[in-house]
Design brief:
seven-stranded mixed sheet; alpha/beta; binds zinc ion
């Protein structure tokens, strides 16, 4: 699994940073791409990467501020123009359906594929399939803003081929059957219990991607022990008052949050356009003093997610 940052700026784009968008690549597990937020110009940003937009089948919107959604109508139209047929699901706060449908209908954009909308009003279970489970949490911003936690389900361990062979079971489709079922009855009536022939389960990864928010300690349990947290750091450590007044976080607050939740890696993003390239080291150090394993996202940065065990 990997995350690619398509835009890492807050509010308005700068020469170095486009507005917010993040691609989560789950192609290894289920051959899908999931987009988190879609600021203006996101489709242009995608063109500079190896990302294959036809695999995009879910879009999660954190909140309805323009810097997180103005790229949607263009991206959706292009997907259609390029012949996309597969259905797409958009998750987001109430209002996202009206925004998308209004922009598409006024511009006479007729899509070649259906969009399914799931509007969220509170912290809830957003989506679940055999491989993943996604939850939302209501954050503290000046409009409704959500954080998403993506939990990959644990995978079965490896089949102990040697032990099976020693038992006299020759390789073949029966191995798959043994792996998929708790117990398998062989032709001679022997019962094979999976637990006797399988290694430790492979722990799934946990990724949290937060929308704009003030620092709120009671969100800590939601991301406890996550492998990766993507968190906004609109302001530097000294601008606590500004952060509070505008419902955003500072570098220091995001790092404190990561530390308290005992996560593995913190990636900061959504930087105010007041910060230039030369300010970045300071922003990074402010966070690292509190949470050493912090990274600063930049446009096109890709992070490969490895779990702790
Ligand atoms: Zn924003
Ligand atoms: Zn916002």
């Amino acid at each position: 699994m990997k995350i690619t940052f398509l835009g890492t700026g807050a509010g308005l784009p700068s020469k170095e940073r486009n507005v917010t968008s993040i691609m989560l690549d789950v192609t290894q597990a289920i051959n899908n791409l999931w987009l988190f937020d879609c600021g203006e110009g996101t489709q242009q940003q995608i063109l500079h990467t190896a990302i294959k937009p036809r695999k995009l089948n879910k879009i999660f919107i954190t909140h309805l501020h323009g810097d997180h959604i103005f790229g949607l109508p263009g991206l959706l139209s292009s997907r259609s123009f390029l012949g996309g047929k597969d259905p797409l699901t958009i998750y987001g706060p109430k209002g996202i359906k009206q925004f998308v449908e209004t922009s598409l209908s006024i511009s006479h954009s007729h899509l070649t594929y259906p969009i399914h909308f799931v509007e969220l009003s509170n912290s809830e279970l957003v989506f679940e399939d055999d491989s993943f489970i996604v939850h939302s949490i209501l954050l503290d911003h000046n409009i409704k803003s959500f954080g998403y936690r993506i939990t990959e389900k644990d995978k079965l361990g490896k089949l102990n081929v040697k032990k099976l062979k020693d038992k006299g079971i020759a390789p073949g489709p029966i191995y798959q059957q043994i792996k998929e079922n708790e117990q398998t009855i062989l032709n001679d009536g022997t019962i094979i219990y999976r637990k006797d022939y399988i290694g430790e389960p492979k722990k799934g990864k946990v990724i949290a991607i937060f929308g704009d928010t003030k620092y709120v300690p009671h969100h800590i349990p939601f991301i406890k022990n996550a492998d990766v947290l993507v968190h906004e750091a609109t302001f530097d450590a000294e601008k606590q008052d500004l952060a509070r007044n505008y419902f955003h976080s500072t570098t220091e607050q995001a790092a404190t949050f990561a530390k308290e939740a005992n996560i593995q890696t913190l990636i900061l993003t959504h930087f105010s356009s007041r910060y230039q390239k030369e300010d970045e080291e300071q922003l990074l150090q402010e966070a690292k003093q509190i949470f050493p394993n912090t990274l600063l996202a930049y446009d096109y940065f890709t992070f490969h997610i490895k779990s702790k065990n």
